[in-house]
Structures are given as C-alpha cells and as structure tokens.
Automatic annotation (TrEMBL):
Keywords: Cell cycle, Cell division, Cell inner membrane, Cell membrane, Membrane, Transmembrane, Transmembrane helix. GO terms for biological process: division septum assembly; FtsZ-dependent cytokinesis. The chain crosses the membrane at residues 6-26. Its main location: membrane. It is a single-pass type I membrane protein. This is Cell division protein ZipA. Pfam families: ZipA_C. It is found in: Cell inner membrane.
Length: 247
C-alpha cells in the first residue's frame, strides 16, 4: 500500500470523527432533552437557547438536501482536498495524522440569528487565530508554527471551511473549535488556550459557547473536561515512568 493511500485513509478516519459531530447536529433532540425547567416568573415565552439542529435542518431543507447526506459528503470532500493542501496552504497542518482524542466546543449564534463571515474573520484575528490549512483557522504555538495547531476552528456547515473568496456571503449557525490530541502542548494547556479563545470570540460575535452535546458550557462541565485532560496527560506520561526493568 502506497504512502499516499495510507495518508488518504488516515485523513478520512480523522474526517469521520468531525463528520459524526456535525451529523449529530442534524438530528432533532428527543422531547425534553437538554431543556431547562422555567424559573419562577418565567414561562414558555422566556428566551430560548439556540437549537443548532433546527437551524441546520431549516437551512438545508430550503435547498432540498437531507442533513446527514449533505454534511457527510461535504466533509469527506473537504478532507480529500486537503491531501494536496489546496484548501488553505500548509500553515496549521498537523505534524502527524495520528491522534487518539478530540475535544470539541461550539460557538453558536443565538436563536433566530446567524454568524456572518466578515465578523468571524475579524473575531478570529482579534483572538489570535491564523487562517491556513484546510481553509480553517488555527491557534499555533508562538514562534513555533511548524509544530502544528494547538486547536482549530471550522465552519459546521458544508463544506466545513471558510472560503475567503466568498466570505462576505458566508452565514452559519455555529462554528466548531476542535482540539486534536496529542497536541504540540499538553492537553490541559491546549484546553486552557482554547476555552478563553472561544469565550472571547463569543463575546465579539454575540454568540454562546456550547459543549460537545450542544448544551450551555457550564462550570461543572468545564471542571469535568479539565479532569479528563489531566488524566490524559498523566496517561501519556505513564509509559516513561513504568518501563519494565531490564534483566
């Protein structure tokens, strides 16, 4: 099997992880899932949290394209194009295609609204991101861009990238922040870089930061993620501490 074939398979597998998350957004929630009970003095007219599945279904329904089919095919096409780096150059390309964990956050527009391309570009620049590989934004290690991205930011709508030639017309219900591990820094340090960036961009864009289950990202969930990543870092260090003794 040629090196090119192996690379294509590796990138396709990586794409399927992102595809799974995107397709998940296209499925409607079960009744009552993720809903908060109204507080005293609040009823059904209280402000709703954004439901990305509904927004994506609505947008794709207008084009007559099934949600799952559109997102899956578009993502596979995007990852296929990245084989030759044609979707944005090499800046932000991972040093290795091997990974064992992905941590995802979403920055969503509020209900009934959209995020607009020019605003996303300005917010990304203010948050210290650079545009590059796969046509998406990346956070790089300062003065060490050759080590690959700490995390990346993609569009959840097909084909997943940000087409600068048509950025004025771009509208999307949300963008995805994804941290692919191992990263050029520790998992916890990468998270502590990604979270403030997502929060800063949410502030600039008037959006809301959601977790991987598209629920509001609260302190408890943040704490759980930090513990998971501490455990991941410890596990990565463990082999060097528990090597079998030589006989």
């Amino acid at each position: 099997m040629s090196d090119e074939t192996l690379l294509r398979i590796a990138i396709l597998i990586a794409g399927l992880f992102v595809v799974g998350a995107i397709v998940f957004f296209g499925r409607p929630r079960k009744p009552g899932q993720g809903r908060r009970l109204p507080r005293d003095g609040q009823g059904e007219d209280a402000r709703r949290e954004p439901t990305l599945g509904e927004q994506m279904e609505s947008g794709l329904a207008e084009s007559g394209t099934p949600v799952g089919e559109a997102t899956t095919q578009a993502e596979l096409e995007l990852f296929d194009r990245t084989l030759d780096g044609s979707a944005g150059g090499e800046l932000g390309r991972r040093v290795s295609d091997e990974f064992d964990k992905i941590v995802t956050l979403y920055l969503a527009a509020r209900a009934g609204e959209k995020l607009h391309g020019p605003d996303i570009v300005v917010a990304a620049e203010k948050a210290g991101l650079v545009y590059g590989y796969m046509g998406v934004f990346h956070r790089l290690v300062e003065q060490q861009s050759d080590r690959g991205p700490v995390f990346s930011v993609a569009n959840i709508m097909k084909p997943g990238n940000f087409d600068m030639a048509n950025i004025q017309e771009l509208e999307t219900p949300a963008i995805a922040f994804f941290l692919t591990l191992p990263a050029p820094v520790s998992a916890l340090d990468a998270w502590e870089t990604m979270l403030p960036t997502a929060e800063r961009m949410a502030e600039l864009l008037g959006g809301i930061v959601l977790d991987e289950q598209r629920n509001n990202l609260g302190r408890q969930r943040i704490g759980h993620i930090r513990e998971e990543l501490r455990a991941y870092d410890r596990q990565r260090e463990a082999p060097s501490l528990t090597r079998p003794a030589r006989w």
